[in-house]
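re: that chain from earlier
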Amino acid sequence: MKKLWLAVLLNFLLGGAAYLYLGRRRLFGVLVIIGFVVWGVDSLVTPMSVGEVAADLILAGAFAYDGYREAKEVNRLRQ
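^ sequence. v structure.
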């Protein structure tokens, strides 16, 4: 059984990490992680606006929710 809370936390903190943890959509997970790393490095170089911070939080929430749904599906398939 995969832990739902861990999938949520992984995808909230680093979008794509939960997919690697769950063993599903691995290529997508790797590409999302690369995108977040590039975005993070860019945000260190240029100041972020309020809109960019809001977009980051919305994306993190969306990835967290998707990680939760994926973990539920993985657990359902393994029963």
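Residues 15 and 59 are 8 Å apart (CA to CA).
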